[in-house]
């Protein structure tokens, strides 16, 4: 057998990536929902660090002191189980929504999508419509092209810097961060993180764009595991739309043996991921509904019924009803509710005080000049409230013993104090060589803020 192979076919050609996606601006029902929701989420993101509670920033994730403050709740490293539970709630809630409504998180609430479309909006204001942007990129470099490109990238950089600064206000008090910015007093570490996050925002929303959703984001890869035949996804009605083809507005599609799809390609031009939904369900689809708005506009112009592209499940497309009580959806919902209940139950039983008792390892006990047995301890107390409190220490379980400790100990909010104490007893009054003793620590301002720690008393 002889193969006719041309010499040029044997040359290994370098990989050429797909060209940029020029998103056409689209108005419509789903676009209004996403834009209004995007504005709400962005304003919430910016406003939260400026909320004050009890004279301090209500939400502050202070990594330097390992203390997270969320209104009345102050979390320390030993409390970070609640952070793990919060991530678990978010994960199962995402699974629930994905199984129900597909990838709507990506299309409507994901920060990458919101910032990507915001950057695209700026690009359209500066460089013009989709066709104008394509022509601009093809044109030679001149004054007009330089002006538009510099204006666009300058606006992108300003937005990126504001985004990064707003993000850092969750970790550094907002007033301090902005005051130091205005007076050019940012420390080296603050400047590093602000400019790093600004660079990431600029790169992700301005250049990587849809590649973050289709290549880098793992969610796009495993989302299909959560899909089933009842999941609502953006769907093209091929039975109604095919055969597709152009025609005049007043032409009868049946006479031309054509379906309702006029092959205008607008569904592709408005898609942030650059896919053709008419090719079927694809993992790149972020369920944003832009193609639905574009198609509905076209259907209106031709006098056809809307819904050629729509949110529908596989069962609906097959003429059946969607089952809202399927096992996978109910399971995700039940797990989400259970985790939320467990998280709130943990917060409710959490004590606003943390303490530990450490014995002096150098000596189990000592005998003082009066012949009494002394046991030294070090108590570590953490004030997990947001008020300055006076703490008192008492003992129980050893009636013959006497505690030597400060009358009260003042501890600032979120601070830790180590307090040396001594328990003294007459060895003849204690029958056991090792006796159990309880240390009771409580706040004078609020005795309900208390904790009991067990330890042992040794004698000769």
From TrEMBL:
Keywords: 4Fe-4S, Electron transport, Iron, Iron-sulfur, Membrane, Metal-binding, Transmembrane, Transmembrane helix, Transport. Gene3D superfamilies: Alpha-helical ferredoxin, Immunoglobulins. InterPro entries: 4Fe4S_Fe-S-bd (IPR017896), 4Fe4S_Fe_S_CS (IPR017900), Cyt_c_oxidase_cbb3_FixG (IPR014116), Electron_Trans/Redox (IPR051684), FixG_C (IPR032879), Helical_ferredxn (IPR009051), Ig-like_fold (IPR013783). The keyword Metal-binding applies. Residues 252-280 form the 4Fe-4S ferredoxin-type domain. Pfam families: Fer4_18, FixG_C. The chain crosses the membrane at residues 36-53, 80-101, 155-172, 184-202, 329-348. One of its GO terms (molecular function) is 4 iron, 4 sulfur cluster binding. NCBIfam families: ccoG_rdxA_fixG. This is 4Fe-4S ferredoxin-type domain-containing protein. It comes from Pseudoalteromonas nigrifaciens.
């Amino acid at each position: 057998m002889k193969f006719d192979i041309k010499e040029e076919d044997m040359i290994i050609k370098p990989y050429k990536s797909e060209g940029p996606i020029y998103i056409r601006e689209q108005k419509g029902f789903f676009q209004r929902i996403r834009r209004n929701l995007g504005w709400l989420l962005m304003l919430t993101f910016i406003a939260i660090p400026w909320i004050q509670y009890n004279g301090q920033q209500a939400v502050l994730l202070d990594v330097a002191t390992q203390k997270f403050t969320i209104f009345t709740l102050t979390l320390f490293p030993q409390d970070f189980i609640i952070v793990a539970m919060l991530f678990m709630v978010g994960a199962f809630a995402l699974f629930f929504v994905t199984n129900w409504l597909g990838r709507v998180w990506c299309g409507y609430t994901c920060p990458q999508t919101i910032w990507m479309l915001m950057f695209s909006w700026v690009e359209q204001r500066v460089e013009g419509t989709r066709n104008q942007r394509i022509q601009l990129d093809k044109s030679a470099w001149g004054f007009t092209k330089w002006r538009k490109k510099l204006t666009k990238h300058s606006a992108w950089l300003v937005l990126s810097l504001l985004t990064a600064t707003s993000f850092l206000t969750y970790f550094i008090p907002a007033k301090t961060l902005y005051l130091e910015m205005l007076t050019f007093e940012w420390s080296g570490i603050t400047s590093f993180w602000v400019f790093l996050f600004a660079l990431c925002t600029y790169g992700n929303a301005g250049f990587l764009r849809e590649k973050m959703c289709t290549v880098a984001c793992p969610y796009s890869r495993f989302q299909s595991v959560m899909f089933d035949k009842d999941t609502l996804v953006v769907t093209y009605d091929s039975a109604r739309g095919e055969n597709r083809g152009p025609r005049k507005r007043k032409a009868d599609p049946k006479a031309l043996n054509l379906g309702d799809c006029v092959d205008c390609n607008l569904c592709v031009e408005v898609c942030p991921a650059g896919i053709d939904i008419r090719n079927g369900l694809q993992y790149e689809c972020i369920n944003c509904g832009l193609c639905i708005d574009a198609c509905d506009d076209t259907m209106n112009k031709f006098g056809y019924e809307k819904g050629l592209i729509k949110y529908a499940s596989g069962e609906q497309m097959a003429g059946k009803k969607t089952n809202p009580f399927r096992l996978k959806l109910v399971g995700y919902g039940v797990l989400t509710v259970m985790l939320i209940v467990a998280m709130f139950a943990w917060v409710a039983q959490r004590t606003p005080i943390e303490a530990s008792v450490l014995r002096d390892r150098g000596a189990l006990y000592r005998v003082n000049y009066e012949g009494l047995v002394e046991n030294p301890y070090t108590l570590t107390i953490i004030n997990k409230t947001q008020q300055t409190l006076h703490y008192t220490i008492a003992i129980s379980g050893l009636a013959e013993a006497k505690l030597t400790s400060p009358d009260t100990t003042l501890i600032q909010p979120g601070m830790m104090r180590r307090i040396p104490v001594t328990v003294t007893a007459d060895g003849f009054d204690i029958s056991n060589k090792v006796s159990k003793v309880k240390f009771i620590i409580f706040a004078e301002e609020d005795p309900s803020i208390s904790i009991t720690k067990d330890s042992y008393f040794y004698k000769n």
